Amino acid sequence: MLRRIKIPGLVLLVLCFSFSLAPRPVFAESEIEWTLKKQLTLDVVPKDVVPSADGKWIYVLTPGEILVYSLPDYKVATRIPVDKTFDRMTFSDQNNSLIVSSTAEKTVKIIQLDFVHQFSLEGLPFQGPANAPVTLVVFSDYQ
Question: Is the pTM of this model over 0.70?
Answer without folding.
Answer: no
